[in-house]
Design brief:
Length: 115
């Protein structure tokens, strides 16, 4: 099983980034997918969730209206479009696939929002 995140980087406040997570080794199309993040010195928090059918089911209050989760089951990839980025969005962003009897995580991609 592999989850490989990409797309992180340094961006100025107000800017945008699009994260990608390429999945392999499990039945991606049947899995609920999630993005989490961990800011320096803070606990990991769930940012967004999308069902296996591609319906976003949950966003953290702190990102509602700014972030959009989506997926392409043909490419085994989940995305996180992040707009109007703020310094408090800085952190490591992780892709997660979880179900009743499995829980897979990627290595994470660093997002830094700073002027």
């Amino acid at each position: 099983v592999q989850l490989v995140e990409s797309g992180g980087g340094l961006v100025q406040p107000g800017g945008s980034l699009r994260l990608s997570c390429a999945a392999s080794g499990f039945t991606f199309s049947r899995s609920t997918m999630r993005w989490h993040r961990q800011a320096p010195g803070k606990e990991r928090e769930r940012v967004a969730v999308i069902s296996s059918l591609g319906i976003p089911t949950n966003y953290a209050d702190s990102v509602k209206g700014r972030f959009t989760i989506s997926r392409d089951n043909a490419k085994n990839t989940v995305y996180l479009q992040m707009n109007s980025l703020k310094p408090e969005d800085t952190g490591i962003y992780y892709c997660n696939a979880g179900g009743r009897d499995y829980d897979y995580w990627g290595q994470g991609t660093q997002v830094t929002v700073s002027s």
